[in-house]
Amino acid sequence: xxxxxxxxxxxxxxxxxxxxxxxxxxxxxxxxxxxxxxxxxxxxxxxxxxxxxxxxxxxxxxxxxxxxxxxxxxxxxxxxxxxxxxxxxxxxxxxxxxxxxxxxxxxxxxxxxxxxxxxxxxxxxxxxxxxxxxxxxxxxxxxxxxxxxxxxxxxxxxxxxxxxxxxxxxxxxxxxxxxxxxxxxxxxxxxxxxxxxxxxxxxxxxxxxxxxxxxxxxxxxxxxxxxxxxxxxxxxxxxxxxxxxxxxxxxxxxxxxxxxxxxxxxxxxxxxxxxxxxxxxxxxx
Amino acid sequence: xxxxxxxxxxxxxxxxxxxxxxxxxxxxxxxxxxxxxxxxxxxxxxxxxxxxxxxxxxxxxxxxxxxxxxxxxxxxxxxxxxxxxxxxxxxxxxxxxxxxxxxxxxxxxxxxxxxxxxxxxxxxxxxxxxxxxxxxxxxxxxxxxxxxxxxxxxxxxxxxxxxxxxxxxxxxxxxxxxxxxxxxxxxxxxxxxxxxxxxxxxxxxxxxxxxxxxxxxxxxxxxxxxxxxxxxxxxxxxxxxxxxxxxxxxxxxxxxxxxxxxxxxxxxxxxxxxxxxxxxxxxxxxxxxxxxxxxxxxxxxxxxxxxxxxxxxxxxxxxxxxxxxxxxxxxxxxxxxxxxxxxxxxxxxxxxxxxxxxxxxxxxxxxxxxxxxxxxxxxxxxxxxxxxxxxxxxxxxxxxxxxxxxxxxxxxxxxxxxxxxxxxxxxxxxxxxxxxxxxxxxxxxxxxxxxxxxxxxxxxxxxxxxxx
Lengths: 285, 468
Hints:
The structure holds 2 protein chains of 2 kinds.
Chain A: H1 4-35, H2 39-42, H3 56-63, H4 77-108, H5 114-126, H6 129-143, H7 149-174, H8 177-185, H9 190-201, H10 203-219, H11 222-227, H12 235-239, H13 250-270, H14 272-280
Chain B: H1 2-20, H2 30-37, E1 50-56, H3 59-64, H4 68-75, E2 78-84, H5 86-99, E3 106-109, H6 111-117, H7 127-130, H8 138-141, H9 148-153, E4 155-156, E5 164-169, E6 172-173, E7 177-184, H10 185-190, H11 199-213, E8 218-219, H12 232-240, H13 259-275, H14 285-293, E9 299-303, H15 307-310, E10 322-325, E11 339-340, E12 343-346, H16 353-363, H17 366-376, H18 384-388, H19 390-396, H20 403-412, H21 425-440, H22 446-463
Parallel strand pairs in B: 1-2, 1-3, 8-9
Antiparallel strand pairs in B: 3-12, 4-5, 6-12, 7-9, 7-10, 7-11
Helix pairs in contact in B: 11-13, 12-13, 21-22
């Protein structure tokens, strides 16, 4: 039997956690409710929590047209979703491929200008997108990369590559040097050390990096807006197409947001245990 | 087992059906093609060429998409398109125009946008296309059918600080947008309030609505951006000064601190603070429109065609309860509302210029524009023949018991583009809007805030080498 003081403390913590949870989840719940509302319920004042739900907004996403007369719109949402998948998966895969050797080198080898090089990678994250996008726009038009998945995957490297290198570098540095030395003594080459020791031991970190990189790609807006066309737009650019001239289709936009958030949600749940471990890796324990 | 497989088959078929489902094509009857073929031009003169049209998300645009196959059948021109909401559309368009890539052949523009595109020579004047008998059958196209105020708004002679309505025509209007007063007729009748005809009466009516009906008396855009300035506020200011005031004197000195401008601004902001919504400073166009549509405001002075939303019973709580009137007049008894038209223009860098013009001629022909208004709610029509169509009259004519259409047409007699052509309009508008916030939050008097705004705008124009 816990003492009254401890019990009070537990209640306070529980209430605080509940408030924090509501605070965090409320926007998501609100979008979910909006996605199930009719237009007149959406703009009603005071806001409605009880209403007759409708799946019209979701149907409109798939079928490309709002049922009923008040609006017509064809945002090709299934195509945008597919585009987001192709581009995000492609960009993260390419980043991993390039970043693993780079991070390994930066973590475990000594060579001239090592830190400067690492900093240059990082600096791509500092530069505002507009500094890259106009030159990229011109180059892409010239080389036929404009409005292609490949072009976007390459452009997304500006988002994912520096981040992936730095994340992986810190995870690789966590692997105790002694294990690496033991492997070397047992006859592992530098490649063998990477493949047999460093990578397996860094799996949680890699999982976290992949998830975060995927999220950054999935949420990217400016690069695809400028470098993609109707055939290659991802969901982010697709969702804003519900803003029209004399009205905003909040219901459909909310439905699009919910559907667009699903992959991230599923991915996060799948690797949840890795995320918790990965996020605390490198911290003082 | 068998049952499960059948379910699976059903599921796969359903998904496949959903994925391949296409909206039913609009009947491509030969009547439509016959109509266009009456034009005495060779529609197939640019056969085999390709166009990319870059358009703003808009009911007019929605109306064109299903008809594109029909255009291809008529002309043999291939059309690819890209459609984005306004802000993103202009970002992408300016990138294309400034790099002279010619990605978009036909663009969606309008008076204030043209002032930005004409000086660097990005868009083509259209008069040569209109006057070329090989490309345009004038008798069939009926240019005179467009409201003169709208065509004139799309003309500009290139002068910084003036010249609107003179010089070349840069774009063909596809709709009319001007600013009128919409008010809750039911509440006005119930509380016996008179429809305001000047600023003082407007403020009094707003006060009364708030006191008696318990909702904000008036709603207006309020975000600190140029987008808040160009509709109800500027129309009121123009009217208050009998159309005499503009942002600059003839030497391009800013005149926001002109005494009449100060008086008007002070009265307007007092009205908003007293009877407007408490979150005025965050209100965007759609917030304002939706507040009125949801029955949460007594009056609004904004785009006339918002009426299409107010009067839509599917989402409006005030359908059938709204009256329309001219925005309050000045001492001279006249209203001088601002004006905007969405319009189609041609990118100078495009390779297929004649094909681009054929597209515009087709897209702005009487029948095409009638379809846009009848079936896609493209309000208000830019052609008189569309407004006069019996079915259109049935819809628009019924709004506000006929007060809508009467107001819109009366308004067009005096409405014109409120802004003065100069390339820094957006920055100037932002500065101006921030001055309104200073006054609203009572950090500065109207006189001081507007004087400061004038000084800032003068500085911006000097830095941009627009004025000495």
